[in-house]
């Protein structure tokens, strides 16, 4: 005979991902978002998470003695959505070493801990004897991969990279490649207009930024060219440096800025507060000071680290900008710069 609900009791239904052992109840740990299940009871042992899922099925919690009593019911199920693979055991020597270390540091009295620390330093730190390697026995963490069927993996076709980029002192390209031409000439009428405009522009600009071209378009009222569309055609007239004083600044084909000290005005200065990159020419007070005193602040020969700046110039920049700016010296930064939007082709 089936009775009505006897009394409401809270219970959870958990999907169990592997065989039930005698002490399986000790392998379940309640956490904020569900349950954590471990193969063995160690803090770094392999684990799998069971998270809450609303099921279409109703589950009953019942008690059967002489009668069948429905204690409660639920549609919630804690499901193991991430698979678990295997456990890698620790080497016995490492396990013994770290077990003893843990025991001495956690459970001994203060005086014994200090004594143990001195002995440990003598044996391992001072003599530089390496301690055993202890690799956490975790192959993958929950949440990294939810689908191990790699046949289902699809890759999006990446955008073609079409700009030439080099390091300072590498051979300067004298013209665009066939690959660049074939890719950009597909734009037909727009391609012809843009290339005609850019060829005229680089007659007076050996080095330029995106904003220099955009400003020129506005000043000359080139209404048939948009600022967004013109940028894709830069590789037809210029190449890029991807490091050094002129990183990600466009340079006319055949022109080598390392040979011309006047190119100092486009050298980079980085702000350490917000990692913003500016050129000398963008800071009028700095540009005017250096321009008036070229012999004082500039070298006639290019230096890989500082470009054309000499030591006096560097000291002046630090003083002028309260040491908030520094020069690029092989440091890679994630900069927000409009010229970085361009794809590149080595």
Automatic annotation (TrEMBL):
The species this protein was found in: Hamiltosporidium tvaerminnensis
Pfam families referenced in this protein's UniProt entry, alphabetically: Tau95 (PF09734)
Name the record gives this protein: Putative subunit of RNA polymerase III transcription factor
Chain ranges of the Transcription factor IIIC subunit 5 HTH domain: 156-270
GO molecular function, one term: RNA polymerase III type 2 promoter sequence-specific DNA binding
Domain of life: Eukaryota
One GO cellular component, as annotated: transcription factor TFIIIC complex
Gene Ontology biological process terms, A to Z: transcription initiation at RNA polymerase III promoter
């Amino acid at each position: 005979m089936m009775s009505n609900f006897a009394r409401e009791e809270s219970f959870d239904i958990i999907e169990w991902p592997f065989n039930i052992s005698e002490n399986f109840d000790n392998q379940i740990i309640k956490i904020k978002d569900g349950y954590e299940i471990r193969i063995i009871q160690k803090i770094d042992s392999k684990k799998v998470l069971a998270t809450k899922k609303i099921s279409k099925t109703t589950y009953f919690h019942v008690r059967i003695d002489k009668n069948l009593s429905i204690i409660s019911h639920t549609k919630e199920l804690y499901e193991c959505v991430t698979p678990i693979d295997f456990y890698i055991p620790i080497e016995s020597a490492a396990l013994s070493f770290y077990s003893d270390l843990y025991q001495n540091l956690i459970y001994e009295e203060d005086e014994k801990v200090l004594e143990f620390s001195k002995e440990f330093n003598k044996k391992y730190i001072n003599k530089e004897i390496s301690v055993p390697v202890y690799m956490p026995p975790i192959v993958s963490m929950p949440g990294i991969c939810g689908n191990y069927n790699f046949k289902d993996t699809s890759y999006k076709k990446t955008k073609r990279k079409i700009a030439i980029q080099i390091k300072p002192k590498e051979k300067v390209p004298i013209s665009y490649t066939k690959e660049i031409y074939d890719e950009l000439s597909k734009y037909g009428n727009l391609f012809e207009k843009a290339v005609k405009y850019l060829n005229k522009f680089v007659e007076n600009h050996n080095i330029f930024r995106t904003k220099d071209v955009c400003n020129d378009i506005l000043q000359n009222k080139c209404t048939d060219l948009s600022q967004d569309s013109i940028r894709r055609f830069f590789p037809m007239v210029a190449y890029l440096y991807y490091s050094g004083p002129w990183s990600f600044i466009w340079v006319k084909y055949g022109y080598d800025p390392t040979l011309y000290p006047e190119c100092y005005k486009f050298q980079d200065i980085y702000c350490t507060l917000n990692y913003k990159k500016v050129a000398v020419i963008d800071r009028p007070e700095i540009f005017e000071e250096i321009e008036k005193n070229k012999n004082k602040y500039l070298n006639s020969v290019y230096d890989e680290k500082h470009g054309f700046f000499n030591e006096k110039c560097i000291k002046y920049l630090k003083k002028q900008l309260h040491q908030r700016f520094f020069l690029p010296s092989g440091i890679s930064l994630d900069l927000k710069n409009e010229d970085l939007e361009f794809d590149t082709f080595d």
